[in-house]
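#structure-requests
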Amino acid sequence: MEKTYTIFGDSIAKGIVLQDDKILLAHKNTIQYIEEYYNVKINNQSKYGLSLKRLLEKNVIENYLSNLDNSKQNFVFFCLGGNDADFDWKAVGDTPDLEHTMRTPLKEFSFLLNETINKLQSHNVKVILSTIMPIHSQLYFDNVISKIANSENVKEFLQNDLTNIHRVQECYNNEIVKTALKNNCLLLDVRTPMMMTKDYIKYFCEDGIHPNENGYKYLSQLYIKEIDDMKQDLMLNTTTTTHNTTNNENTEMQKIFNLSLPIKEKLTNNNFQSDTNMYTNINLKQGEQIK
């Protein structure tokens, strides 16, 4: 049976990087690495600033279902949640003494995610969820929040505890995990290995949200390891016969990721230097935020 793969994601799935306050597209994003590795076409519908709530407000799922070819096995990946978990920091900075909710309140996010999955599954679409790429609270506060809002007032709202930023995000990530279990969805967990990487800060852009060029390569490796564990469920064929953590796998990864060293060693090389020529400028609508 012919298969289709579609992803609805935010700017991380799109491949956004931030360099010197410029918002750019990485030379190659995680989805492109995965496409090349598995020799498969993925319809990447990821958008800058996309949240689950915004996805539904724009009737994206309804449009997807209206064009669905039921003669094929259809898969949908969701890489969302980070934008839903964010605050309107300008409003927080203006009125820190008021109660502020996330852009999509947690209970609403959980309800919408379950409802969306059920709708897709009712059309025999197989749904795959991804955990959220972790945020680096200090970098995000220093290089994003403080530039758009009154930083002292934001600190007051957070009770001088910046870990509130990533702890809120963790709550949304937990909802994704619980929802996957509840609805029998496949789950790609890239958050855990990223969080277990002691020096994971080196994979971030200065905004503390988006991976840098090395970060997208590393994130791709994490996704591929997760996908390899469930490739039969995803009806994927790998480009090599062996995909354990062996020299055979490293050889193929070197080819796909254009690395001369095993990927883990290459990606932990502190001599990596970003090259602005590797990025492509993109135009953003006024008022869109880095996410």
